[in-house]
Request: fold
Amino acid sequence: MDLLDSVPRYAVTLFERGLAAVALAWAVVTAVRWRRSGLRAALSLSVPEALIAVGAVGVWAFTVAPMAIFLPGDIPQHMPVNLVPVLPLVSDLLGPDGWFLNGPNLVANLVLYAPIGFGLRWRFGLRIRWILLIAAGASTAVEVSQALSDQLRSPDVNDVLLNTASAAAGALAFSVAHRLLGARDGADPVAAPETEAAG
Reply:
């Protein structure tokens, strides 16, 4: 994934527009569910779905949307593919100005899929291994699309590793929060009990 200048203005604009669309859809869906089954039940479904949608919009805006058409003077071209895991990350971070230049991209990859992992665990009660598989598959598809694209995207196997770890962190964050809240309220601290068995 190539985040030009960490957070390019065009990507932020696309993300903001995507968030506006998610907010509108969320409001409509939540209102319909509220009328049918009450506010609490509506929010228990709509909030995790919104988190998944927000994560998907972020992935699209920052890793999939075309770059060259938004960057005047840049000629569409294929970027080199990195298939070496971990070592390039360490080398980049240990180099001169390594954290300053590469840290934001590392952090972005580590948080990009977290809302998706959190939402999948909350909404569907999926086990961590399934969330890992979904995140790894989705991230691999993104990197392959970047490799086939001429939109100045940089395919990198490390992005798949970081994105998968991000989704797992999000899922674990939900599990911890649910257990803490369940222990406080005296409820059964098992995520999404109605769907957990299916995971």
Residues 66 and 151 are 5 Å apart (CA to CA).
